[in-house]
Design a protein that fits this description.
The chain folds into two domains: 3-123 and 182-300, Alpha-Beta Complex (Spore Coat Polysaccharide Biosynthesis Protein SpsA, Chain A); 129-170, no CATH class. The chain is an alpha/beta fold and 301 residues long. It is 38% helix and 12% strand. It has helices at 13-22, 69-82, 102-111, 122-127, 129-136, 151-170, 194-202, 204-211, 221-228, 267-272, 287-300; strands spanning 3-9, 28-34, 54-58, 88-93, 96-98, 191-193, 247-249, 277-279.
């Protein structure tokens, strides 16, 4: 089987190098998008990292948290990789690491060939009204609320965005009233088949129409297309100790809507975790846990 690893990154270049090296295998190719705002990135520093995998770098978009730019980057990477036709496309961030060797990862997907590894969070979708508001109302200023270093500018655009939402509530705006898709929600980090990538690209115009003014649409569009376009029966049913998207992400210890950053004290729990990938890690927070995982995985390749 052939695998494409699609990495979205914006900093921590040493860590990104380790991730690329860990994924190096004959049947793996690696597609990396670097945020256009990241001026310190130099592709020359990433030459000759792999001996078998081909690595492709792109720096096409300025990416803003919560903005449609995140969807654009994901579709861009899917489209680039789709030209080469892979069995699986794994969307990960530069803050991720594999928890298993390349041989174990390949064997797992061989065993579960044809399944889609997508996490649906139906409970949160039903109980959190904020998620339904993402698509119900227009979020015109989503790319401006978090892009400035000056707090007063971000606060100003946040105020304007909220004022716009209040006005839409008063006017009974409902963008999805006539939509023939049921909107679904979950993690944007997925491992999906060539068939589903083809469907995402086929639906690209509709995705843009539905989600271009949607807040945090990256957590909606893959789930929505998979559910409505014939893939919901192919979703992986996890074994004990695993998640549907085979990624270990600790939201319980996270703060301010961000996942917890693993540290050296979490090393044993990471070793025994059954998922294939984990996020997130940071070389600035704790480099030692990254080095330990690297050492273990290189022994098992």
């Amino acid at each position: 089987m052939r695998h494409a690893f699609l990495i979205i990154a914006h900093n921590n270049w040493w860590q990104l190098k380790q991730l690329i090296q860990l994924l190096d295998a004959e049947n793996h190719d690696i597609y990396v998008h670097i945020d256009k705002k990241s001026k310190s990135f130099s592709e020359k520093d990433f030459s000759n990292l792999t001996s078998e995998a081909k690595v492709y770098f792109f720096q096409e978009y300025e990416v803003f948290w919560g903005g449609f730019s995140q969807v654009q980057v994901e579709l861009f990477l899917f489209e680039k990789a789709y030209q080469q036709k892979y069995d699986y496309y794994h969307l990960i961030s530069g803050a991720d690491l594999p928890l298993k060797s390349n041989l174990e990862i390949d064997a797992f997907f061989e065993k579960n060939q044809g399944k889609e590894f997508i996490l649906y969070d139906n409970e949160k979708l039903q109980n959190d009204p904020e998620i339904s508001r993402r698509t119900k109302y227009y979020h015109y200023l989503q790319n401006y609320r978090r892009r400035y270093s000056q707090k007063w500018k971000n606060d100003f655009f946040t105020f304007c965005e909220r004022a716009s939402l209040v006005m839409q509530i008063v006017l009974h705006v409902n963008r999805v009233k006539e939509l023939d898709w049921t909107v679904k929600y979950g993690s944007n980090w997925v491992s999906i088949t060539n068939d589903l990538v083809a469907e995402l690209l086929k639906q690209k115009d509709k995705i843009t129409k539905v989600f271009s003014y949607t807040n945090c649409a990256d957590e909606l569009f893959v789930q929505t297309v998979a559910y409505n376009c014939g893939f919901k029966d192919r979703i992986y049913c996890p074994e004990d100790g695993m998640t549907e998207n085979v990624r270990f992400i600790d939201w319980t210890r996270g703060k301010n809507g961000n996942p917890y950053t693993f540290r050296n004290r979490d090393y044993q729990s990471l070793c025994t975790n059954k998922n294939l990938f984990a996020r997130k890690f940071s070389e600035k927070e704790d480099k030692s846990v990254i080095l330990k995982i690297m050492t273990d995985l290189k022994k098992g390749v």
